[in-house]
Amino acid sequence: MIAHIGFRVVRDVTAIDELLNSIFPNKHIPFKSDFENWLRRSRRFQSFAAQYRTKMRAKLNNVRDEAGLQDLRAEWEVAFIILQDERFTLEYETYLAAKQRGPDYTAAFRTNTRLNIEVRRIRGLELDHANPDVLIHKLMAVICDKVRQMPPGMINLLWLTAESDLKPDDLNHAAVTLRQMAGLKTHDFFARRGFTDAAEFLKYYRQLSGIILYHPQNTTLWPNPLTRHSIPRELVNAFQRINLA
Questions:
Q1: Per the domain annotation, does 88 fall within a domain?
Q2: Percent with pLDDT over 90 in the chain
Q3: Are 196 and 70 in contact (CB under 8 A)?
Q4: How many domains are there within the chain?
Q5: Which residue in 38, 100, 126, 215 is deepest, having the highest Cβ count within 10 Å?
Q6: How large is the angle between the packed helices 2-23 and 43-51, nearest 10 degrees?
Q7: What is residue 97's predicted lDDT score, i.e. its pLDDT?
């Protein structure tokens, strides 16, 4: 029995080393140690990384600056976090494989509840807490940009990871303001953000089921009251318990 356990440990260490060397050929990537920690803490994340190692290496090779590396770290951390809950399974960039723009992850919760998750890191430089109007307009721009990636017909979540404290009230203010502007048919505002008019924005906005505001100590989920696909209560509870994992 002791020999068997010892063999398994050696095998696991070898698998982790092979994954790290495959995904991180450059040993000086700042968050490589974080990634290694995720692999060691989660066998399910290790399996996920093994399945998508080629894609992950390609994405890493395409990053051009430190901010891009931190964006990618935030994206992969979401996979690690979600896979802590064994009720979830996770697929990576399913829509990109079909040459469609779509969310980063497609998940299944308890097998029969399918959902998409798009990840966006809010960089510290994008948040000006001294100027509330700048903060709200930035969040409005993020929502406008991301709702176009939400496919119809299923639950879609936007996962926001903020470098600094971002309050749920700020997020709610931004969402309510967008909804009000759409109701007032402020077409020019939405045209500047790539929509034909306010009606087209609302079409995509209704495909957004909710927004996860992630912080290790306090994860909150904002449900979109206009969505066509509401989030089941059990799924809401699962995401709100993330910070307790």
A1: no
A2: 71
A3: no
A4: 2
A5: 38
A6: 40
A7: 72
What is the CB-side half-sphere exposure of residue 160 using CA atoms within 13 A? 29
Amino acid (one-letter) located at 133: D
Q: What amino acid occupies position 226?
A: L
* Size of the chain, expressed as the number of residues it contains: 245
**What pLDDT score does 60 carry?**
94
With respect to residue 31, please indicate whether it lies within any of the assigned structural domains.
yes
CA 140 to chain CA centroid, Å, is 17
Quick check: 147 and 187 in contact, CB under 8 A? no
Low-confidence ranges of the chain (pLDDT < 50): 1-11, 245
> What's the confidence (pLDDT) of residue 215?
80
Does 9 fall in a domain? yes
This prediction has a pTM of 0.90
Q: What is the pLDDT of residue 167?
A: 85
